UniProtKB/TrEMBL annotation:
Name listed for the protein in its UniProt record: Protein fem-1 homolog B
Gene: FEM1B
Superkingdom assignment: Eukaryota
Length: 137
């Protein structure tokens, strides 16, 4: 149980997900909710003891809904990187269970490949971008 209004909040996260929030939605820096939760924790030097439990709760909710620990933001940071040294590192590591399509996307990203949107099925665009493969300009 956290203080009212405390962030990150496990119950709020669960409620949002149950209401259809997209677990891998990205912001303008291409960060997913998993990124945001982990990076926010890094940015509060105080009160970390109170935060760590709720952070782990939120991370569990997101992982339980299939959040990708290998999603890549515009700086190349993944939730896995953001979790290092924090209370959720073990949780994140235990979720490394690469899906074949994630590995394929990672290989493309490593090769700094881009894709032509017209030649790739539309439902793969966000997936590729989330893994660091961006549309050709
Ligand atoms: Zn993935």
């Amino acid at each position: 149980m956290g203080r009212p209004g405390q962030f990150p909040c496990t119950r709020t996260t669960r409620l949002l997900l149950e209401c259809g929030a997209v677990v891998d939605a990205v912001d303008d820096r291409h960060r997913t909710p998993l990124h945001i939760a982990l990076i926010s924790y890094q940015m509060v030097p105080d009160e970390r003891a109170q935060w760590s439990e709720s952070l782990c709760g939120v991370v569990c909710e997101l992982l339980g809904r299939g959040a990708h620990v290998d999603a890549t933001d515009y700086s190349g940071v993944t939730p896995l990187i953001a979790a290092i040294g924090g209370p959720a590192e073990t949780l994140i590591r235990s979720a490394i269970n690469p899906r074949l399509k994630c590995l394929a996307a990672a290989a493309l990203a490593d090769a700094t490949a881009v894709f032509r949107p017209a030649e790739v099925p539309r439902d793969l665009h966000a997936f590729l971008a989330m893994h660091g493969v961006h549309p050709a300009k």
